[in-house]
Amino acid sequence: QKNIAPIIRAEALTKNFQGMVALNAFDFSVNEGEIVGLIGPNGSGKSTVVNLLTGVLAPTSGRVLIDGKDFTGAAPHVVARHGVVRTFQMIRLFPSLTVERNIVLALQEQSGPGYMSSFLNRRNAMAWHEKAACKARDMLALFEMEKHAHKLATDLSIGQQRMVELARGLATNPRIFILDEPAAGLSPINVDRLIEMIRRMRDEFGVTILLVEHVMRVVQAVCDRVVVLDYGQKVADGKPDVVVQDPKVIEAYIGL
Ligand code: ADP
Ligand code: MG
């Protein structure tokens, strides 16, 4: 792809929870323009990786580098402002706010001090909000969710809520978008749609993607490379069709 310098890198990343090793000396990187899959059985440490990369958890040891700079232990909003954006395994929308408002809030959160300064003057604030709402609607249109813009998030199906989460993340112009099990709870048709949208986010918007996913159909359809975890240990890293035939990977899944 375009550039071979990794956007994000984990060096010997380790996380213990009360003496239990959830992630052990994990070395890993994602290059610009790649779609990398992170797979492994339940409890193998996938969400822990995501939480460590995004500042939700601090590692027991090891480092997190973004564009070669040390972000170990940085707060989630600091990491996010460097273009590392994520979704959560459990959907996190504000249920009693409209779909559009959920996206505007993410833009507000991202612009931080810039947003506050727009409040110095009422006209600036209104212009800011108008622009943000416009961006939100553009994103919703892309995900074919425009007609739901003024519904409450809670009134959407799980599939629709997942699309809103993708629209919300993409609205903040991520450099790397980390998706934690986006296919969970989706119907086969919505899985097809998800596959299409993951590809489009990379191909049309230039977003690098780290995809944590259980649904192998999605992984095989979109990933350039797949990393496999088992008991907090990396057991494979390679092309999807090679990795799924790796005896260590097969054993990790059969040993469930
Ligand atoms: P995965 O996402 O692959 O299913 P996780 O990263 O969620 O796995 O979990 C890895 C291991 O760490 C599991 O054994 C899990 O129970 C444990 N774990 C995850 N988060 C915590 C936490 N906050 N406190 C204690 N144990 C945790
Ligand atoms: Mg998980």
Secondary structure layout:
Layout: E1 6-17, E2 20-31, E3 35-39, H1 46-53, E4 61-66, E5 69-70, H2 76-81, E6 84-86, H3 99-111, H4 113-118, H5 122-142, H6 158-171, E7 176-180, H7 188-203, E8 208-212, H8 216-222, E9 225-230, E10 233-238, H9 240-243, H10 247-254
Parallel strand pairs: 3-8, 3-9, 6-7, 7-8
Antiparallel strand pairs: 1-2, 1-4, 4-5, 9-10
Helix pairs in contact: 3-5, 3-6, 5-6
This protein binds adenosine-5'-diphosphate and magnesium ion.
Features:
256 residues, alpha/beta, six-stranded mixed sheet, four-stranded antiparallel sheet, 10 helices, 40% helix, 24% strand, binds adenosine-5'-diphosphate, binds magnesium ion, ABC_AA/LPS_Transport
Rg from Cα: 19 Å
The strand line-up of the biggest sheet is 6-7-8-3-9-10
Major pleated sheet = 6 strands, mixed
Strand content: 15-25%
Bound molecules: adenosine-5'-diphosphate, magnesium ion
DSSP strand tally: 10
Mean pLDDT over the full residue set? 92
Helix content: 40-55%
Q: Uncertain spans, ≥5 residues at pLDDT below 50?
A: none
Outline type: globular
| Structural class category | alpha/beta
Q: Helical region count? A: 10
Query: What is the succession of H and E elements?
Result: EEEHEEHEHHHHEHEHEEHH
Distance from N terminus to C terminus (CA atoms, Å) equals 36 Å
Organism: Rhizobium loti (Mesorhizobium loti)
GO cellular component, one term: plasma membrane
Protein name: Amino acid/amide ABC transporter ATP-binding protein 1 (HAAT family)
Pfam families: ABC_tran, BCA_ABC_TP_C
